Amino acid sequence: MAEGFFFQALIYLAAAVICVPIAKKLGLSSILGYLFAGIIIGPYVLGFIGQEGQDIMHFAEFGVVMMLFLIGLELEPHKFWRMRRIIIGMGSLQVLATTTVLFIACSFVLRWHWQETLAISLALTLSSTAIVMQTLKEKGLTNTSMGRSSFAVLLFQDIAVIPIMAILPLIAGTTVVNESNEQSLISHLGWIQAPIVLGTIGFVYLGGRFIIIPLLHVVARTRLQELFTASALLLVMSVSFMMQLVGLSPALGAFLAGLVLANSEFRHELEGDIAPFKGLLLGLFFIGVGASIDFRLIMADPAFIIIFSTIFNTIKFFVLLMVGKIYKKSSDQNILFSFALSQAGEFGFVILSFAIQLGLMQTELANQMMAVIALSMIGTPFLLLINERFIDPFFGVKEKQPKNDYDDIDENNDVIIAGFGNFGSTIVRLLKTNGIPATVLDMDSDRVDSLRKMGFKVYYGDASRLELLKAAGCDNAKLFIAAIDNPRVNLQVVEMIKKHFPNLKILARARNRSDAFELVDMGVHDFYRENLYSAVHLGVDALVELGHRRYTATRQGQRFMKYDEQSIHRLAEKRHDKKAFLMTAKEEIELQEHLLKNDLYAQLGANDHAWESADLRREAEDNSEKKED
Fold this sequence. Notes:
The protein is mostly helical. The chain is built from 27 helices and six strands.
């Protein structure tokens, strides 16, 4: 009973539900939560899933396939074509350089046979698509310069798996005996394999345009959501299986299928149907990676595993740093790019297992390398956290301007704005159209360069640095607007302004109530929650659609915001006492509802037409004229 399917499913789901929220509460990535969940329930800690639990990996790896399908859906073909230079250039340079450096280092230091050294180097040069892309998504970095470069290199690595798997049998001098390749229908056809592979890729493209999309139209007409979901899963699984039959990566096939459908009208529907499966299967994949770490191997020779893992990550980091420099990436983006891809990946497990079956290396050495891969994957979220908190705020800025740490600012305006993302740019444009100039600061060097090309005057620099604030004119300015995307940095900037420029008026962005509470503690009374105003605006429109007068609904919305903002100050005092906070929150909600109802009755009693009164009179006159006619 304890070994049954339901027991195994219960263990996996319970571990994820417990560990992931704890990781998020500690400010860590959800990936770390899944990895630690796998370690805890794995065969080397609690032993709940046992060795046979690793069979889940064959199922969970499909999460990586679905992830690449969704990436393809989000990347339109013309954008992919524009990225071809960076995909081939950065990707090939990283793979070749990392493989070469690792091969030379292992050959001269460890004196391994050249065949096993090459197999290990090829396995370690590939990064984890699942971990990197999921981390980029969680941190909102997918559309940054670093995010696009990471995606390009990862995509090339996924493509590179194909020639790597073809090279290994050649250096081993044996035929392919990998069980996963027994399904390949063309492995014995020699030179004919290439045109068959290209033909398969062409068939995926044409089939998507002329078969899959018309078929989805037919399914959509049934208006059965579950049938459309089944069709989406069938599409991904069919393309992946077909790619596997001709010896290609299933993940690559799924990406191509998503790319073909990126411009179709079913793009968002497919994304919504696939996303839940992708998230769950990726979670299982990360749990499987955590459970696969053989702690007996690590404890048998911990010095070798830890030292080798550290040196390997360092080598790969500096190779990636060199690649970024060659492609003229800014310092802050380049460091983040290098940290993100410095680990080994899930395809490393596949290559090492294949190398064992080919007799290229001893099983014990391969298992040690698998432990290195797993440890490097676990370490990636920690490396990104260290970079975010201790390296990026200082090193990236100093590299940009060694002398002053910021651009020279040649203007003094009454308004200073920190942060030129979607939030800050809207404020700047509104002020500019009303003839009010503002000094704009932003610490994303790539964004600053792009904005300057678009005609915006933006200064590069870290707004949490006192010397930059003085150079921007905070001593004489009238208004400081804190609109930085990162809430933690935004609060640091506000704290700096309150401390050194107490007479400067502050208007601050708050992402949610928690940020608002922090601002209240700092003595900032003018804060603006992102979701509040758009939500109230939608609520006002909903009231109008349901028959309320526009003026009445708008006044109710304004009063709702007024009462809600007042309640923030009262709740901020009680938020550290959970029981008192919940009680006060309940009282505030009841009080707010009571006040709004009284206001509504007062408006109705006063026959409150306001904005609509002129329209109503005009309508009444028109009706009377029609009656007279």
